[in-house]
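Internal QA ticket QA-208
Title: Verify multi-chain structure generation after dependency bump
Assignee: T.L.

Test input:
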Amino acid sequence: MIALSTFASEAPTSLVQAGGWFLEKAWIIPALPAISFVLILFFGKRMKYKGAELGILSIAVAFILAICCAGQWIDQVNNAGDHSESQQQEHGEDHEALVKGTQMGDSNEIEMAAGEDYLAFGSTGEDESHGSVGIQPVVEKFTWWESGGRTFQVGIMVDGLTVMMLFVVTAISLLVHIYSTDYVSGDRRYTHYFAFLSLFSSSMLFFVLSENVLQAIVGWELVGVCSFALIGHWWEEKPNSDAALKAFLTNRVGDMGLLVGMIILFWAAGSWSIIDINNAAIGHEIGHSTLLIAALCLTAAVMSKSGQFILHTWLPDAMAGPTPVSALIHAATMVVAGIYMVARLYGVFFEGYNIAGSSFNILALVGSVTLVGAGLLAFVQDDIKKVLAYSTVSQLGYMVMALGVGAWTAAVFHLFTHAFFKAGLFLGAGSVSHAVHSFDMKKSMGGMRKFMPTTFKTFVICTIALMGLPPLAGFWSKDEILVGTGGWGLFGGTGGNGSYVFALVMGIIGAGLTCAYMTRVVYLTFFGEFRGDTHGHGEPHESGKRITIPLIILATMAVLTGFLNLPLGFLTGDAAGWQERFGHYVEPVATYFPLISHGAPSWSLAIFSTIVALIGVTAAGGYFFVKVKAQSPAATELANGLTSKSRVAKAGHTLLKKNYYLDHLYTDIIANGTKGPVANAANWTNQKGIDEAVNQVGKQTTRAATFVYEKIDQNIVDGVVNLSGRASEGLGETTRTVMQRGKIHQYAAIMFAATIIFAGLLIVFV
Amino acid sequence: MVAQNIFFGIMAFVMICSALKVVTTTNVVHAALWLVVLLAGVAGQFLLLGAEFIGVTQILVYIGAVVVLLLFGVMLTKASIGEETDLDMPNKVLPTVIATLMFGVMSYALIDTFRDTELPRETVTNAADVSDSIFSDYIVPFEAVSVLLLAALIGAVVIARKE
Amino acid sequence: MYLVQFLLLSSVLFCIGIYGVLARKNGVMVLMSIELILNAVNINFVAFGTMTNNIAGEVFALFVIAIAAAEVGVGLAIVLLIFRNKRSIDLSTIDSMKG
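Actual output:
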């Protein structure tokens, strides 16, 4: 197989078009949950399992189709490599390198988008034996409407990234569906819940499959709406509906950036299609400042949807929704919509921010600050879901930072692995809370490992994956991100697109923080003594099979997925073909993807980051497992710890507790500040300023009009009119007395006289 | 040739004299009788121009019917027999002026245009020619005139009937 | 024979007819003057028809005769009605249409 070169991508020398039945019919995948949404809404209440069976069935079929798509895509990539190899062995036959997969569907209105830059292969007969082969994604679209000479199309674009996202979304959605049948059973709106789960899955799949940015905007908004509906599932309690509104409105702030950015890109590239926009950006057809502005606007959208600083405040509050919803939406799928969008339009960001060859850009800065900021906030939370929420924010910061430094494959791989182990952590937290009916770690949990062994084991496995300790998934993905920053200088460095030292430092600090707060969570939940109260249900017990089996599956994925993207140089010999499998299939090699450099893995960095992680574990472990436990088995913190001794520490603790006062800023200062003074000022301007001006204008106009009426209209104009009337009357009177006396002879005389005159004139002049 | 000119001259003189008499005499019945002379003269002129059918029709219709009708009108409007008081408008100057002027303009135009036009000799058209033309080229006016006559007939009866 | 002699004759008769229309007070006299005018026009028609060898002149003269007859009938009926209403056919006294 031809391996993609590692240190610098070259432009593809030939392109093959991918095809295949599952890839072309991939639009079925979002259609199935959409149909199930409608059916559940209409028929769910009458069904035996209240609509859950429809939801599970549709998402399971979608999952199978997604696996088939993935398989077919892998097949296509392999075929492209084989075909190119075999082509090189034939010498200079002059035929086109146009390779289509198996039969295409009949095309009534669906047109296959053929890549426009096909090169005749014969001309590169003398290529070196390691030319890279590009693969055009499967694009199917049809025209929705036309207006003003522009067409608006709807379609799908399937490439490696899409296929990966399809797999992730359907897999986690399926597990969440199964989990929900136990977790939400007996709920007042069970059917409604499953309907919205289906709608959300459909929206996210639709978003992922979008061929053009208009569709992506539609999908983006749809997932926002579903998130609102699901967060506010128990809207009868005001905090829940407040949280849902906060989520939606904070997302709206970023959506302004999305709309502005997409529209700028449309006008700059002349097309809504993602491939066209990327081609235009990479091919330098769009000016650099335009790209920069578009990238900044889109970054604002990412900040709100993917919970980056400073618009992250909605994510912890979104934990008011049911836990499976948090697992699905706010851990694995919706919040990564921003990451996906950046990854899709990476040409725009790569060129706009000049990611290659620099050491600082906004995206990396936002990601790094989020990393560390959210990590610090996770320390002071009592609610287990809030800790996981901040952890999600922090990990999203990792992904954004990775995209900011040019480590595209690393970010996408981290998205992939994070989805599994974060979903596992959320579902585990849900399992625990299902037993103790509360989320508060300090008040209700402790020592759960005795009562819930399966949950404990899966939770710990997912935690280790999150911490990034080898050989679990988090280690491989996080390490690849750190390698990609290019800031490591020891032992020859790691290559990469630039040297983002600040990002590297923040990444390492973040890794340490992650370990520390997760150790805190594990201790407070599973160790020590049980502090809770089961309201007369006896001791808490392990959850049922429908909860634990998804947990086990997710924990397994957390272990295994890391091996999908082993870095180069890790294995040698025959097994070398197993390296970089994920990147090979997912990272696009085509004209619409910029030429990014990949970092070379560095053992020294890997060891260093592992050591930092272990330091974090040890520090937190020492604090909790030793000192706090020594204080008392049921204690949750040291009674006379740091915060009681030092005023600085106390102030820092308060700052973290109050979420850096960001909520205070948004609600009290910005919103109330606008409500109060600004609204009053506007009212004053309106009443005293504008209304007064209008009234004055009215008064003056009235006076002027009165003057005009009395002096001019009455006297002059009317006088003229009356005069003309009297003149006509006089003239008429004269004519009447002279010419119309009723005498026939007079009439006849006039007639004949006129005839004579006219005849005379005719004779004289003609 | 010469005979025609002499006849024309005699008839023209007679006609002009009788026309003048029609418009100046004070006796209504005498005016009607002078009109008869005039109409006969016109018929003679038609015959001179070779229009046999029109000449005879002129005598039949005008003298035979129209003048009789006029005399009936005179009778029914109780015109006094013998000298009539005043049949003329008080102002006779203006009509004279207008008539003279009209004659002046017309004669100037006619003499100026047709001074040397001679009529073709020996052209006689008979009833057959006239009827051929009416019933082929001018059939529509013919029908229209017949309708008009009907309307006039009915109209006259309606207007003048006793209450 | 010259054409112009017929035309001059017809114009003389026409002008005498105009004089009659304008100068006569009696309604029946006015009608007679109108007959004068019509006959003058007839001579004109036939003369021109003979000049151009076209039968249309005579045909139109025929129509004029017919129309004149109809007009005299209706006109006399009107004069009769006027006489019945006003006991006089002095046209200078009929001015009720004055403005």
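Spot checks passed. Chain B has a mean pLDDT of 89.
Status: verified.
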